Amino acid sequence: MQNTSPAFSENVATALHDPGLQRALGRAKKPFAQVRANAVAKLPEFEALRDTAKAIKDHSLANLDFYLEHYAAVVEAQGGVVHWARTAADARAQILAICQAAGAKTVTKGKSMISEEIALNDYLAEHGVVPIETDLGEYILQLRDEAPSHIIGPAFHLNREDWEASFRKAHTHLDPDRVFAEKRDIQAEARAVLREKFLAADVGITGANFLIAETGSSVIVTNEGNGDLTQTMPRVHIVLASIEKVVPTIEDTLSLLRVLARSATGQEFSVYTTFSTGPARATDLDGPSEYHVVLLDNGRSNMIGGEFQDMLRCIRCSACMNHCPVYLSVGGHAYGSMYSGPMGSVLTPAIFGLDQGHLLPNASTFCGKCETVCPVKIPLTGLMRHWREREFERHLTPTPMRYGLGLWAFMARRPALYRRATRLGAWGLGILGRKSGRFRWLPLAGGWTRDRDMPAPEGETFFARLARQERGA
Amino acid sequence: MSAMEPRQSNQREAILGAIRHGLRRGALPADQAAMLRGRMIAHPRQIIPARTALDHAGLIALFTENAIREFCTVARIATRADLPGAVADYARAQNLPMRAVVAPHPALQAIDWAHAMLEMRFGRAEPSDLISIQEGFAGIAETGTLLLSSGATTPTTLNLLPDTAIVALDVARLVGPYEDAFDALRAAGAMPRNVMLVTGPSRSADIERTLELGAHGPRRLHIVLIGDDAAAATG
């Protein structure tokens, strides 16, 4: 997908005035928080498991080189092939080479954010290999040529009429007058259409939620079963995973799985959690005869040992965005990156560069809700603040904001001047606004007052009142 | 792939090198590497939810309760000889054909299916199969989850292709937490190619967040628990 993060401000304006999107967001807002809260309430060990999950990921990252080498050796001992990809372009070329060697015409795909990150579909299509997304949400986005707006519910911004219209347009072999009486009729049509694709595909590409060093397994988590059909039916299975997905053992994986579904969809466990270990064995009756793993770096190794290493703990549950007041107001597309919400605001500049993603870390009120629900306790607001500092250092901050921050810093370092100026301001605004108690417009704050009124100060600053009360006491 | 090898080893070294640069060290010293290998061999457990600390009757009850909440149906029978009757009853009740593809597992092949007027084929599933019967490796009471492992007698396609999946499971194979099921799997030999943890029938909520069953995998998941509590206690 095309990264449009630099147009964040314009994207936000569009999103706020998109009635379809606002309807979809309204539908999601409450359940997102509710389902997680219900699942957490049912597991008394949940808070302790968050600490365990964090410790497992920290341990894995502190020894990432060791576990990657061990993982790769075990995969290859079981007949799998591991491909190391430094960049997105390397991964795309490696995947295409595997598809071409397999003589692949069509490729089915399980949901993979890494695939979005490296813009794999366009690349395969340009080279004569037809990619078919099989996750229901990803499938309709492919039909509509849209990007995902959420890392686990990629099409949650769409409404039922969008689904019907897209299916009528794409599935021209079916009766044009058919009726979709229920939502399940839409799902049934996708199931029938995609079933044919699963059976015809030469190669299946899945992502991985975890890679297990101990057993050389890749783990995927789905509710639909599309990932399983993708990795079971074709002759060749390609796992596309980023390097930070590796964890030491099955037991470590199980602890992470206990927090993943609960944080994501509020399920106790997803429907299908599948461990794939190498190609089909000699006595197996089904399964792929080739098993490839493409290990993608794409900027992650540079995050190791630095201030953004904590972000590599992320297990892509989406709890942070599901609880983010900014995300829930503008949706995922506004971020202009496949990674949106708080996790996307930290990850996008790390992967695509600060010049591309520098606006996103500003898309936060720092309310901190994301941190309180993160199953691996990533200090998301702190990481966004690091990016804001770098943005300022690299002069990427918009000029008026730079001047504003400069002025504020000048004042803040001179307490006497600061207090005198704020006292004057509060007094002046207090008198001017005495009548209505609010301002409909203020000089230099037109952007702020366009959508709301500014409450008038009561004529006294916080410092002044504090001093007065302390004197009184 | 041989033409790619030099470039491949460059990329591998570049990635590992960048990680080590970030960690401010070279390759892990031998003693530390040995410690990490030891941890993988010991594969220590972490927190096990207290809800799984039950006797066997309790595990059966918790498994059943959780599986039903996840939209499974669960039947109990005393012995394997009752399985054809249970399958036939289920198929009739759901108005399904009396035909199924069955895992070529010894415990399922030894059964007299014709007795219950069932037409059975043993092997992997084909797209035209409507009902499959799989032999479960374990049942996990913690969340009502089945562990299905691939192998010569338990093909994976049975778990995925048919509309209706039936899983036969001896009650002695019910455990509390996931960890117990994987310990049993380790004891049975090398990690199978495919291990599926299945919790209910396939579903999606991608359309307007409304949960609908039967996305790509089975629309129905019927679990037949075999054996009584006494058999479980000795099993």
Characteristic key phrases:
heterodimer, A: 473 residues, alpha/beta, Rossmann fold, six-stranded parallel β-sheet, 51% helix, B: alpha/beta, 2 domains, four-stranded mixed β-sheet, 12 strands, 33% helix
The sequence of SSEs of chain B as H and E is HHHEHEHEEEEEEHEEEEH
Beta-strand level of the residues of chain B, as a percent range?
15-25%
What does the average pLDDT of chain A come to? 94
- Morphology of chain B: elongated
> Hey, which two chains have the biggest interface?
A-B, 104 and 78 residues
Oligomeric status: heterodimer
CATH class of the domain at 43-301 in chain A: Alpha Beta
Helix content of chain A: 40-55%
Q: In total, how many beta strands of chain A? A: 12
CATH superfamily of the domain at 43-301 in chain A: NagB/RpiA/CoA transferase-like
- How many H/I helical runs of chain B? 7
Q: Which strand order spans the largest sheet of chain B, edge to edge or round the barrel?
A: 1-12-7-4-2-3
CATH class category of the largest domain in chain B: Alpha Beta
How large, in whole angstroms, is the Cα Rg of chain B? Answer: 22 Å
Specify the structural class of chain A.
alpha/beta
Q: What number is the mean pLDDT of chain B?
A: 94
What is the fold named in CATH at topology level of the domain at 43-301 in chain A? Rossmann fold
User: Any guess at the CATH architecture of the domain at 43-301 in chain A?
Assistant: 3-Layer(aba) Sandwich
Major beta sheet summary of chain B: 6 strands, parallel
Helix content of chain B: 25-40%
